[in-house]
């Protein structure tokens, strides 16, 4: 089998565009086999096989998804890379930390315009790549292509939405069914979910995790011993790390989400002290201002999906760390509607 052409994968994923279904019904002679089973929206690229334009390959860029066999190879390739990563993956400064993306592909591109392109900028993404937005598949495959090409320049953490159960309810499963005609693409992506690391540690002093703390976790070494290659459990340490939220409580309180915990300043300060940390970075909660510090600036929530669900009107942010003592939030707004195409879709009211 020929090696992956990672440059092509990155370029195809980067140029992803939506194509209405009726535009796929006219295809140039000889492309029928290549077009069979492909989606009515997807990724743009130069018109060379196996990415051919459904109209005129001489004039139009490709607007199709990765052929399934290519997506399969990309997922397998990234799984092999992730297998070598620790549950608490070490990362060095300078680095830019990002929160939830939720399938907002055009806004992910705006994030890169704000923070810099890979590999010029080193990134940590703290999970929730999929669900809610219109382009979860394109968002996730773009990040996978970047990870495949520059594995040391982009770190992908697992969020509570990188889950079979959650994605079957909140959009990603249905999106894969619509775009590929079956669930095979979703199944391969969920294999990658299981391999995603749980946390990142910046210069041994800043912990990045999707959700928050757990009453079952006192030290970073306890995170390192979690068996992460599985569906996220309904309770326990692994569940808490991707589901918990900071709140104005003394220690621990029951979470209204039905999973994870609410945790307060006291347990945060204890965890930071025991593990010699300066800061905990997390995502998981919409912040209308883009980011929010809590607990005497021992914890920060970073949110990177502007105008969440295309209606919340919030600003998004990324957090740039030049070193552990020098941080700078960068704010950005959603791409204007005139610069995106929004396909018709029924959404489920859900803001976790």
Automatic annotation (TrEMBL):
Keyword flag Manganese: yes
Coiled-coil portions: none
Catalytic activity: O-phospho-L-threonyl-[protein] + H2O = L-threonyl-[protein] + phosphate
InterPro entries, alphabetized: Calcineurin-like_PHP, Metallo-depent_PP-like, PPA2-like, Ser/Thr-sp_prot-phosphatase
Keywords: Hydrolase, Manganese, Metal-binding, Protein phosphatase
E.C. code: 3.1.3.16
Domain of life of the organism encoding this protein: Eukaryota
Residue ranges crossing the lipid bilayer per the database entry: none
Residues of the Serine/threonine specific protein phosphatases domain: 157-162
A Pfam family hit: Metallophos
SUPFAM superfamilies referenced in this protein's UniProt entry, alphabetically: Metallo-dependent phosphatases (SSF56300)
CDD domains xrefs: MPP_PP2A_PP4_PP6 (cd07415)
Subunit structure: Protein phosphatase 6 (PP6) holoenzyme is proposed to be a heterotrimeric complex formed by the catalytic subunit, a SAPS domain-containing subunit (PP6R) and an ankyrin repeat-domain containing regulatory subunit (ARS). Interacts with subunits PPP6R1, PPP6R2 and PPP6R3. Interacts with subunit ANKRD28. Interacts with IGBP1. Interacts with MAP3K7. Interacts with NFKBIE. Interacts with TRIM14 and WRNIP1; these interactions positively regulate the RIG-I signaling pathway.
UniProt record similarity statement: Belongs to the PPP phosphatase family. PP-6 (PP-V) subfamily.
Name of the protein described by the UniProt record: Serine/threonine-protein phosphatase
Record organism: Crocuta crocuta (Spotted hyena)
Organism lineage string: Eukaryota, Metazoa, Chordata, Craniata, Vertebrata
GN (gene name): Ppp6c
């Amino acid at each position: 089998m020929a090696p992956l052409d990672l440059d092509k994968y990155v370029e195809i994923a980067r140029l992803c565009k939506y194509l209405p279904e009726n535009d796929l019904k006219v295809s140039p002679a000889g492309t029928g086999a290549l077009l069979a089973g492909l989606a009515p929206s997807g990724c743009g690229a130069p018109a060379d096989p196996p990415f051919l334009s459904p109209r005129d390959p001489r004039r139009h860029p490709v607007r199709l998804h990765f052929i399934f066999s290519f997506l399969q190879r990309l997922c397998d390739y990234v799984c092999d890379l992730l297998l070598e990563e620790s549950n608490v993956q070490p990362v060095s400064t300078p680095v830019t930390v990002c929160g939830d993306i939720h399938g907002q592909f055009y806004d992910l591109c705006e994030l890169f315009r704000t923070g810099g392109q890979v590999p010029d900028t080193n990134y940590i993404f703290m999970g929730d790549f999929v669900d809610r937005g219109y382009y979860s598949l394109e968002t996730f495959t773009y990040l996978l292509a970047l990870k495949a090409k520059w594995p040391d320049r982009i770190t992908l953490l697992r969020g509570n939405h990188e889950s079979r159960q959650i994605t079957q309810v909140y959009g990603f499963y249905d999106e894969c069914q619509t775009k590929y005609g079956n669930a095979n693409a979703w199944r391969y992506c969920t294999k990658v979910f299981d391999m995603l690391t749980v946390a990142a540690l910046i210069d041994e002093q800043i912990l990045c995790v999707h959700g928050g703390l757990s009453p079952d976790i006192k030290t970073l070494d306890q995170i390192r011993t979690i068996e992460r290659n599985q569906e996220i459990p309904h309770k326990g340490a692994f569940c808490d790390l991707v589901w918990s939220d900071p709140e104005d409580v003394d220690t621990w309180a029951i979470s209204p989400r039905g999973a994870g915990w609410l945790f307060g300043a006291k347990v945060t300060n204890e965890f930071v002290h025991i593990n010699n940390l300066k800061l905990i970075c997390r995502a998981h909660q919409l912040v209308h201002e883009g980011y929010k510090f809590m607990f005497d600036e021992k914890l920060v929530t970073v949110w990177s999906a502007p105008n969440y669900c295309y209606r919340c009107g919030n600003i998004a942010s990324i957090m740039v760390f030049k070193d552990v003592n020098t941080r700078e939030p960068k704010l950005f707004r959603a791409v204007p509607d005139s610069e995106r195409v929004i396909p018709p879709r029924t959404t489920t009211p859900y803001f976790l």
